[in-house]
Amino acid sequence: xxxxxxxxxxxxxxxxxxxxxxxxxxxxxxxNWLLFYIPLMAVLAAICFFNKGFAxxxxxxxxxxxxxxxxxxxxxxIVSIRLKGVAMREHDIAYRKGVIWQQVTIxxxxxxxxxxxxxxxxxxxxxxASLRLYSAxxxxxxxxxxxxxxxxxxxxxxxxxxxxxxxQVVNNTSTQTDDHPLAPDESLNG
Length: 190
Prior knowledge:
Blueprint: E1 19-20, H1 25-50, H2 52-83, E2 85-88, E3 92-97, E4 103-108, E5 112-118, H3 121-126, E6 128-135, E7 143-149, H4 150-178, H5 184-189
Helix pairs in contact: 1-2
């Protein structure tokens, strides 16, 4: 029988204790940014070298702006990684991210269809991984948590899969006990 109890006090998601990302998550984020900025700076330097007209106009602003943008990006990564966190609870997983616009995503395990562990070349080298959780009917990951250690990813994935399997076993046993066909004379006579 379905019961719907009235709640007098709502649980607060601010009371969730988040576990920080892996120690090497910051280094991974910084290297990713550097892998973007270094080639960009090399291309701009080559353009300035071969195009003297562009170099006369843009060289000074580029020499000032690019290092400032690089430093701001690296500082932003430090704050961003420190604010991110993951919390495993009995029936759901919570993920916190954001510096300016903070966001907490809570995904119940009962809605998870499947999981993926993603590891790029830098992540493999550093022992990191990203966990992607997909819910039923979704085309893309409902929750993508990067910066976890590979062991944490495997443990979370295993926990979620066991939770899903337990839920399927409970659903299968309840539907088997509830599906009692009525005899033809019982259905008419009440």
